[in-house]
């Protein structure tokens, strides 16, 4: 059996690690008697920097000899759309020929999915397309009509959360029988243990730390968090705010920090390979996003035994935090409610915080490599050891 993954990307988003771990889960848990090969299709050189960290049994199939990943524009709507079109036309015939020649049994597609869906016109019936919806889909008219037109060509559609599953059911684009929940393999315990013990965690900061993690984009809503922190700092001056991540909103956020005179209180620390060393020092982790599905960093915070305060944005946080039983939920983009929930966190006793952390850790089990494989196994009919 041949299983191919198609997931071209122009920014290093959380879905990238999910794709790698999904492929590796098949290698790890598939019955050794099964003749299964797993391959990642490299469209623009996006997998080049990851190849040394991917299981050697996962083949990387390069469609192009030239690496375009580092030269494609990615910041801003128009630039990113140009890159998507470039990927589409650059790989049209190359991907078409690959699928016709190799005839994979399953083609699992993420992120920039329009090309393989369109090529389903030419592919052999032996190849079943599994469309993995990575987050709450923005169903503009074009996407709605495109999915509707090709819905019969798609074998299965997977959703990362129950809320997204229900959302797609209501849209009536795909037959209900084709849609299922497949949680991302976001939790890799061996990675956590390695980073926890191999990197100098150190002691907590002298100042109490509120931590946020994510790309500096509109979605993550860090301008809201910085503005809210201004009010928190007036009431609780012993706190600082650290934000990990890079992105197009960096200069805008720096200007906001300067405007609010928070230069010695709010720190933009850029992208960090080991987020656990920061999570384990923090008093709490705050997710201020306008939308997430599911919100991998919530799982990393739970694994690090860090109290979580999150917006109740669509679609993942409510499920991961079990409506606030596993952390603190505030109304999305609501400053007053966020400040109320932060006060609740401050006033909570140790037992209450411990209970929420334990509950969150139990919920994390749904997002392990093995749980993901078991769910994927039901779709592609593999046998586990």
Explain how this protein is built.
It contains 14 helices and 15 strands. By secondary structure, it is α/β, with parallel strands linked by helices. The protein has a seven-stranded parallel β-sheet with strand order 3-2-1-4-5-6-7. Strands 10-9-8-11-13-15 form a six-stranded parallel β-sheet, sandwiched between helices. Helix 8 links the parallel strand 9 (239-244) and strand 10. Helix 1 packs across helix 14 (369-380), helix 7 (222-235) runs parallel beside helix 8 (250-259) and helix 7 (222-235) packs across helix 12 (335-347). The protein is globular.
**Distance between the ends:** 17 Å
Strand count, sense and barrel status of the largest sheet are: 7 strands, parallel
Alpha plus pi helix count: 14
* Largest beta sheet: strand ordering: 3-2-1-4-5-6-7
Radius of gyration: 22 Å
């Amino acid at each position: 059996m041949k299983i191919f993954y198609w997931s071209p990307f122009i920014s290093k988003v959380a879905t990238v690690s999910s794709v790698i771990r999904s492929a590796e889960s098949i290698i790890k848990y598939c019955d050794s008697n099964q003749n299964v090969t797993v391959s990642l299709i490299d469209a623009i050189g996006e997998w080049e920097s990851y190849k040394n960290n991917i299981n050697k049994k996962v083949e990387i199939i390069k469609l192009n000899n030239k690496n375009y990943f580092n030269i494609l524009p990615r910041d801003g709507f128009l630039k990113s759309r140009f890159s998507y079109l470039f990927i589409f036309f650059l790989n049209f015939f190359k991907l078409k020929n690959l699928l016709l020649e190799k005839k994979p049994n399953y083609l699992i597609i993420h992120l920039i999915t329009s090309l393989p869906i369109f090529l389903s016109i030419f592919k052999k019936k032996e190849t079943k397309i599994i469309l993995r919806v990575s987050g709450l889909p923005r169903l503009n008219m074009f996407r709605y009509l495109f999915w509707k037109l090709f819905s019969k060509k798609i074998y299965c559609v997977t959703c990362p959360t129950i809320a997204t599953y229900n959302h797609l059911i209501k849209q009536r684009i795909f037959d209900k029988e084709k849609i299922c929940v497949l949680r991302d393999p976001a939790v890799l315990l061996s990675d956590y243990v390695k980073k926890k013990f191999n990197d100098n965690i150190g002691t907590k900061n002298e100042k109490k730390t509120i931590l946020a993690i994510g790309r500096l984009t509109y979605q993550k809503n860090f301008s809201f968090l910085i503005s809210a922190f201004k009010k928190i700092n007036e009431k609780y001056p012993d706190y600082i705010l650290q934000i990990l991540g890079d992105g197009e909103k960096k200069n805008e956020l720096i200007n906001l920090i300067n405007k609010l005179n928070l230069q010695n209180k709010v720190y933009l620390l850029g992208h960090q390979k080991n987020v656990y060393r920061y999570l384990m020092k923090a008093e709490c982790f705050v997710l201020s996003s306008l939308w997430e599905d599911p919100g991998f960093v919530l799982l990393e915070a739970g694994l690090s035994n860090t109290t979580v305060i999150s917006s109740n944005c669509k679609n993942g946080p409510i499920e991961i935090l079990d409506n606030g039983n596993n952390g603190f939920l505030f109304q999305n983009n609501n400053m007053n409610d966020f400040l109320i929930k932060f006060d609740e966190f401050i006033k909570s006793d140790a037992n209450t915080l411990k209970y929420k952390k334990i509950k969150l850790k139990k919920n994390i089990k749904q997002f392990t490599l093995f749980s993901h494989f078991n769910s994927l196994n039901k779709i592609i009919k593999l046998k586990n050891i």
